[in-house]
Amino acid sequence: MNVFFLLLSLILFSCAEDHVSDSEIEIIPLASCVDKGEYQVEKLSDYAKSLHYIPLETNTASLIGVVDVEKSFLGNNNFYLYSDNNLYKFSGTGRFLSQIGKSGGGPGEYVHIWDVDIDFSNDKLYIKNRDISILEYSTNGDFIRDIPIKQNILEKGYYTQHFQQVSSELFFFEIVSYLDNQYMGMLSDDSFEKPVYVLSHDPIPMDENENVVFVVMDAKIYKTGKDIYFHQLRSDTIYQINTDSLCLIPQYILDYGRYKPHDNNSESIHSYRVIDSEKYIYWAFTFGDLAPEPFIHSVYRNGRLITYTNTSVKAVYNKKTKAFKLLKQPIPKQFGLLNDLDGGVPFWPDIISSDGKSMFMLCPAETFIATYSGKENLSDEVKNILSQIDEESNPIIVRADFK
């Protein structure tokens, strides 16, 4: 075990620089597109061949609030949706099946869900219980074991946030600290006896007292097909976690140019969401003063009405053609791809299925009703859903099958 981790440590610290050339890293020209003012409306039919709607069953046990799609999954024809510190399981047709685990202090119970990962090939589901432990369940919700997580990592106050199982024996964690900025990740088996630490390639600044200026837990660790990626949203690089040689390899670099998010100016651009599929990467940014179509938006949060200026911009990167496109709003104050398949709500993916064949968007029931009520030539599918739901119903899942 010690020899294995010694070799692993040497590999992790060296391979990113030594085993990849600049020509193998894809540069995504964000700054160039912004400078040229290149924004366009993209049609859903260029990406998807069909559209279907799945109403989620609504009852007292299954009623969900706002879904955090970063902790939600679709695999083996079941949805796993995180909302309000609960993980709900629905069938592929929207039937409520169960709740996975529950809040509490007993076996198989959690204090707060910080992250979720699912290994559909082995029917294993993992809930990260704060930075305390990983709870392992079957995908049916049967509790298997509690895996304690190493504390006070490196004796520099590091703790774990986002995570991903990268093989049957190893987990990869984002790590952060208020006291140090040298490291960004940790690779370990479930014993945490000999963890391996990954140096940060874009450290958070330190102040004059040698404290971290700010702590951002913004990493996205995700699977696309058999590949696993690690991306800190404040950084410009997406790394592939190579599970054969066990190292981080730069795969994509987002060229921010003078708009880099670390720059303290009103023309900074910030990435806040990345959705990756076999053919496309879907990006969401905040553009601040650079936003081409800003608008005032109001939303209720924790019982309070909050009003702010929405400066979001969506973008798509085509992995095959290497084309990067900044998108205009297809309908004023709505984001995504113009829904030219049935004229409904603009589509933007929230979840990619584990088999890579479909992308899914959660549409609030009230939005679905407002969009389709009164429209002519509705499909029987849409008519049937409208007859079943009201504005208090669970969301409608919109499934778009890739071309």
Count of structural domains:
1
Over all CA atoms, what is the radius of gyration? 22 Å
Named CATH architecture: 6 Propeller
N-to-C CA distance: 46 Å
Assembly classification:
single chain
Structural class: mainly beta
Shape: globular
Largest sheet: 5 strands, mixed
What brief labels describe this structure?
five-stranded mixed β-sheet, 30 strands, single chain, mainly beta, Neuraminidase, 403 residues, 4 helices
What does this structure look like?
This protein is mostly beta strands and 403 residues long. Helices cover 10% and strands 42% of the residues. The chain has one domain: Neuraminidase (6 Propeller). It is built from 4 helices and 30 strands. The radius of gyration is 22 Å and the shape is globular.
Topology:
Layout: H1 2-18, E1 26-28, H2 30-36, E2 39-40, E3 48-55, E4 68-75, E5 78-83, E6 86-91, E7 96-100, E8 102-103, E9 109-110, E10 113-119, E11 124-129, E12 133-138, E13 143-148, E14 159-165, E15 171-176, E16 183-188, E17 196-199, E18 219-224, E19 227-232, E20 237-242, E21 247-254, E22 270-276, E23 280-286, E24 295-301, E25 304-310, E26 312-318, E27 324-327, E28 351-352, E29 358-363, H3 365-372, H4 380-388, E30 396-402
Parallel strand pairs: 1-21, 2-27, 8-9
Antiparallel strand pairs: 3-30, 4-5, 5-6, 6-7, 10-11, 11-12, 12-13, 14-15, 15-16, 16-17, 18-19, 19-20, 20-21, 22-23, 23-26, 24-25, 26-27, 28-29, 29-30
